[in-house]
Each structure stands twice: as C-alpha cells, then as structure tokens.
What does this fold into?
Amino acid sequence: SAAALHHPNIATVFEIDEHDGQPFIAIEFVDGQTLEERIAKGPLPLKDAVSITSQVAEGLKVAHAANLVPRDIKSANVMLTRDGKAKILDFGLAKTAASTKLTQMGSTLGTVAYMSPQQARGEDVDYRTDLWSLGAVLYEMISGKLPFPGDFEQAVVYSILNEEPKPLTAVRTGVPMGLEWIVSKLLAKDPDDRYQNAADLLVDLRTVDLSSPGLSRVKPPSGVLPEAVARPSSSAGRIQAESWPMMALALAAGIAVTALAWYLWPEQQIHFERSVKRFEVRLPVKGSIAGLDISPDGGKIVYADLDNTADNVHVMDLSTGAIRTLDGSAGTLVVSISPDGEWVLLTKDLSIQRVSLAGGAPLTVTTSTEGTPRASWGPSDWIIFENGQAIWKASTSGSEARPLTIKDTATGEVDHDWPQMLPDGETMMATIEYLDKPSTIGFWDAETGRKKGQIPFPGYRVRYVPSGYLLFVFGGQTGNLVALPFDAATLSATGSLISVTTNVSTAVTTVSDGGTLVSGDVQGGELRIINQTRLFAVTFPSTARPLGFEPIVFRNFELSPDEKKLVAQINTVRSITGGLVEGTEDVWVLDLERGTQLQLTFGGSGRNPTWTAGGDSVAYVYSPTGLTRAMIRAADGSGEPRDLFDVNANMFDLDISPDGSHAAYVLGESNIGVTRLIVRDMHTGATVDLSGSEDANIRNPTFSPDGRYVAYERGPRILVRAIDGNSVPIYVGQARLPLWSRTGTKLIAGAADTGNLIAYDVSLTPTFSVDRYTPLTYELGQTDQYDVFSDGRSGIFNLSNPNDRTDGSAAPATRDTTATVVVTVNWLETLK
It folds into this structure.
C-alpha cells in the first residue's frame, strides 16, 4: 500500500523484494535532518511550522485517499530536506481500511507521546488519529515541547486521556489565537470535534494570519445583525384568513423591531434568514465539463461537453430537469451567460461567438491569439476576453476590438486571466499572474484600461456577489472555493477569507446574482480530461492489448532508440470524493521487457522527457519554483542530474536532435499562453526563433531524423520548418501530435477531424516535401500521447479505459456518463 503512494511529501518506496529469504524495502534516500533533530535546536519560526504542517497534511491527504492510515506520525518520522521540503518516512505501522486488525483491543502501536486518545486506549482508529498526531507535532514545533509530557508511558497516556495541554499563547509569546485554535481542534479528544480530513486543515493553515494575534480568524461581513435581532422563520405555508389579525399584530411588532434596529444600528441592514438547500445535479456528458455557467436568476445551467464532437453546449432547466442543445456550438470550451440571461458567449479554440439562449445560429464576435480565451460580458454592448496574455474588449457586433490592459512587466506580470465586470459597469477585475510569485486580483477602468488597484489574494475565476463578497478559487485553476468580504466602492477587502467548499475547478464553479452556487470538484471539471490511463500495445489498424503497468496518468512518453524502454512523464493522482485530480509530475523509465519502472526525478517538477541519441540518458524540463530549465540524467538513474540550459520563461515540450547538437522547445509567459518555438545550438547557446507569425498555441516540436527540420503542432495544423529559420513553415495537414518515423520517410499524426492515426509520405532530400497521406486507421480516442515502432505497423498508446473486446482489441474510447455538480441555493446563509 505504501509503495502505491507517489507524492513529494511522502518518501517513495521503490521496491519490495526478498534476498536469501530476507524481505527488504528499497526506499528513497532523503538528504537532510529529521524534524525531531530540528526541534531539538529550539522552536521553529511560526511560518516554518505552518509550512511543514501543511506539507505533512498534503502527504496524509494522499495516504488517506488511498485508505491508508500511517498511525505513527511524529517528528522523528518527518524528514526535512536541505531545501526545506518535508517528507513522511515510516509507514511501518500503517493499516489499510481493508486489512484485518493488527492488534488486540487494549494493546497499542505507535509512539506514545503522539498517540490520540483512541489509539492510546487500543481502540480501532481512522484518519483522524493521524490528524491528532500532526497536532502534537505542530504543538512541538511551536513550543519546543510535547503537548503531553511525562517521565513514563503511563503518565503520558493518563495526560492524553484526561488533561489538556498548556495553551500555546501561554507557552510562547506572539502566537496568534487563530493558530492556537487550529492546534486545539487537532488535539480535540473526541474525534468528532477534530478536523475530519486533511483538506479542511489545509484550508485553515492557508488562511491563518500569522502577522497579528486576534480573537477570530474570520470577520463577519457587514450587514449581518447580532443574533439578538429577531428573524422571521424560514418555514413557509398557506396563509389562512383567520390568521390575518395575528399576522397584522406580528407585522406591527416586526416593524417596531426593524425601526429599533435601524435606530440602534443606523449603518446596518436587516438580514432575513433564508433556508439553504443543497442538491446534486447530474449533467449528461460524453467526456467531461469544459465550461459551465448559471443564469442570473439561478434557473438554468449552461455547460460545454468537452468530448462531444457534435454540438456540445447544453442547457439544463433546473426546475424541470429538461436539457436541450444549442445549435452550432460544436467545439465550445468556455461559456458565459449575459447579465440579462438572454445570450451565451461561446469560446471555440481561438474564436468567440454569441448565441441566443433560446436558440438560433451563433454569431462571431471576435478572435484571439490566446488558446481557449476566457470571455465574459463587459459594459453595454461589449465583451471582455483574454488575448495575448492581456485583457481586450470587443463590441458584440464584431465591429471593433482593442486592448484593455497592459502587463506591468516591471513587477513581473506575465498574464491577465478570467476577466469579469463589477456591478458599477465601469470596473473590470481579473487574475494577475506573475513569473515567480503568487497571483493577485487586479482592477482596471473598463473604458481606459487604467489600473485602479489590486488585492493580494491568488484568486481565479473571481465573481462578485451583490451582497458584498468576492467568490473565487484560491491559488489556481483547481483548489478551495473561498469568499472574501469586499467593498466594491473602495475595491478593498473588509474581512478575512471564509472557506466555502473544497476541491473545486474553475471550469465548473459559478454563482448567480441571487446567490445560487454551482460547484464541482475535479471529477466533473476540466482536469477530467487528464483521466487515469493505461498503456496499450497497438497493432494497426485496430487491435490493442494492455501492457502490464498499473493504470495511472502517463503523458509525454517516447520509445528509446532500441525500442526496449519508454521514458514517460507520470502524473501522480489522488482520489478525492471519487474523482481524480492531477498532482505532481515526475520522469520515469519503463522497461517494456521486464515490466519494471525507475523514477528519475523527484519532487514533482520533472516533465516533457526525451531520449538522447545513444539512449543512455534522458533530457527533461525541470521547474521546481516556476522558473524552468532543461536537465539531463543517466537513464539507469546513476549519478546526479546535470543542467543543460536555463530559460527566463516557462518552457514546454522539449526535444533533442538525434545528434545532440540542437534542442527545440516552446516558450510561453504562462501555462496558458504558449507563444514561441525556439531552436537552440547546444554548443554555442545561440537560439533561433522559428515562430514567425505562428506565435500562438505552438506545441509538440519534434526533430526529423536528420536533425534539419522541426515538425510542430499549431492549433489543429501540423507545420514543418528548417531549424536555421531561413525558410517559411511548410503546411502538412489538419492534424495533431506529429511524430517522425525512424527513417524520416513518414510523418505520423492524429487527424484533427476523425482522431484516426494517419501517415504522411514525406521526403527530407534535397529539401522537405509532402507527397500524400495514408490512413493507419487506428483511432486515437482518449489519448494525448503515442509512439510508433520502427516497423510502422505497431505502437504504444495511452488510452482512457477503452472497452476491451474478448479478442484483445480495443473499441473506440467513447463514454456515456454524467458529471455531478452541487447546486446550493441561498449559499450566502452558510457564511454566517
């Protein structure tokens, strides 16, 4: 069970084997010191204690999602690497949910000082016992002492069962009350009073204010009266005629109370409680939800089905459950409903259209050079949208489009995302991304583009709720949904972050003006396109058999020159409420003959691997801090990784020429807008920009066997260009994922219209030319990577759960399924 876990905060188990009858475990070597050794030198700075606790909680979240309870979390079992990363070491006492009891009632396992009361009593335990132990570790880091000290085990056990630890604020000065509250909740003796999962703990650790002590971490928003003010009941019923006199009396009393309230709290508003209703809605999809929005009145959900090749935007009436499809919507990735609820914006790759919610033909509004530009409705007859890592505005008639924001490169801004208007009709807000620091929320004048301010919260898909909140996904495209009390007049926060729900996706989370919230975790959101995959050996035209590797997320893989191994980027995944969320990225080498796997990079920052010519080394992109560089390491894992070169921007899709003399890669200013194709001379360091006018959405460059040309994907097209940059790109065809045959006589790709694998007959001498293409007929289906053997008749695919036939062949990967979202009516009531 421990070996199945892959996470940067868990020491990796590489192998479990036996030698001369003696079982052994080969585990990752961690160069550093134990947390116990660090605490022995004195209490940690509060920010370091919170950081380490958060990292251990991230590891526990993965272990718990795999139904594994470590049961021995303590400072001696947490290693700190030289760069400060925390790793959980010992799963020796771990117990799976499916295993039999390892101990009898009344006996204990684990280190006594960190045991939960349930563990100390020898009772059966669950995930919450690990959170207790983590609370003891956090207490120890802050105070330098154990929460339940004692000279012998029985004294410690008695203290755990019957006493409370000294308050941290009494042991160490300057400890915020919010942090003490977190520790107290972790060390609650009743498991039901503790944090119920690591995800909830992580939210509080991220939002705790370490700068100043205070009595509350959350400031109530303005407009909510004290509980002493009576509120009408949320229940409703039929009004009888004979009740009118009593209702009149009650109404008079209510008016008096209201008047008194206005007198006592002249700047407040009466807050009437409304009932909160939550229900799940299952949206039929062929693949997954690419984009979703809710009408302003909260009555309709509009969503785009990513994998549907036909018209893919559907409208669900929440009152009846009826679903209809909008004509002409095929290829839509992002949707946005107009403030009047009558129109929908449809983003299709590089174009933006609008269509009546009632139906009809879409009308083109504008185009964008940024792939999948997110767009929303602007002031009057304008829309605002992403274009070239900034925000533009365009008239809905399509008569004009112009830039609105300008990146402040002096402060490191690299991208403006998710534009949205504030209700004044004059102010636009968007996410500001930086090269090497967390994002913020910015505000601009919607007419002039003048920057009006910003607030330091990493918010994505920020929406303003008229009752005085900003609602956004914290920290990235997926994460925890939070609400921030906000004054739209001063563009400033008026309170602390409030957690709304966890593990949601920006693509599938939105809110109506009236306070109906639609939220979906990554199972129903955009990350579901990176579904769990298996590697299949494919023989053209249509047969496939699974290889022996366990299903996981295999991406960006490549056959070795001798075709006996596969280097791959493996994205570790964790289970959250039944869904899959993409986690870390590391480079592995898979031995196709022996069925073994060897990890080459660690820490979740290795991607886009490629073989060197001799097949003895692997080059890859390394991005531990957001800044990327190319590195190389021996394919057998020996020695240390070596730097190839650095770039001062995000790097994607690395390839090395067959003779090792050049590297090709794609540079972009953010993980959204890919901009330039670069070829680098590995001897001199000189670079050539091959982008030309093709400066958007360039992906997957690959060298020809003679090293003279690079084939690459730009949108739905395959282009080829000489590496010297002196000739213009040569159009090959409407396709994706280009791949040269070993001989250079064919250029293989997936047809953009059908997804079938095709081969273009090409020539490299005297110059590159294209003759014709022949279908290989194998359908790519749910794959984002493949490679073909030198025989030209077989290859390896990653496929998302194809329907295996009894003869070993694989049917096309089609899925009729549903994506579940949660609809919360009157969700603002939950913030109280």
Q: What stands out?
A: The chain has a mean pLDDT of 79. The first strand starts at residue 13 and ends at 19. The longest helix spans residues 244-264.
